[in-house]
Backbone:
């Protein structure tokens, strides 16, 4: 493996834990889409869907979308734990779970929230790089602390085998995922 890929992964973690799509290592960021869609603005939404997050399930348990549809997701965490709403393929979720585990290991995330005070942490295990700019800001993903509400707006461009999932360590494995089906 070249030195470039590990450096790109570290940059990805430090610049927002950007999900790496497929083997091309394409980065997902606002203004850039993924093979199945892209971030959109709330005023462009053609439908609003409220997703309730509980410990460890979503209501509703599945979604159906149309190609080209822009959905405004209102994400309400009624659980006791921090949860994530992430749109992706099973392979993307597997990769993102590794990143989320690292975020937990380094104290950025706790079972119930985000550590907004990174200045007191030991950053030496991250190869001497500062973790001060770490954010969980992928356009296809949002973290929601207990009792909070968040929003994610997504344009579904290409029918793909997708699911929405919580990639907080242990949550996906406990069943906190649901399929996204494309209407014909």
Residues:
């Amino acid at each position: 493996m070249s030195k470039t890929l590990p450096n790109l992964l570290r940059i990805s973690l430090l610049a927002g834990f950007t999900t790496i799509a497929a083997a091309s290592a394409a980065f997902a960021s606002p203004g850039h889409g993924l093979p199945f869609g892209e971030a959109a603005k709330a005023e462009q939404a053609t439908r609003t869907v409220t997703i309730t997050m509980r410990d460890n399930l979503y209501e509703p348990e599945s979604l159906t979308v149309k190609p080209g549809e822009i959905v405004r997701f209102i994400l309400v965490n009624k659980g006791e734990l921090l949860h994530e709403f992430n749109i992706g393929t099973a392979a993307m979720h597997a990769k993102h779970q590794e990143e989320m585990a690292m975020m937990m290991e380094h104290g950025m995330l706790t079972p119930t929230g985000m550590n907004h005070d990174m200045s007191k942490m030991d950053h030496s295990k991250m190869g001497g790089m500062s973790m001060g700019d770490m954010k969980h800001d992928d356009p296809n993903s949002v973290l929601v602390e207990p009792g909070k509400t968040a929003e994610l707006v997504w344009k579904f461009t290409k029918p793909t085998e997708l699911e929405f999932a919580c990639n907080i360590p242990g949550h996906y494995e406990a069943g906190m995922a649901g399929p996204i089906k494309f209407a014909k």
User: Anything to note?
Assistant: The chain has a mean pLDDT of 79. The chain has two helices and 14 strands. Residues 56 and 167 are 11 Å apart (CA to CA). The chain has one domain: 4-182.
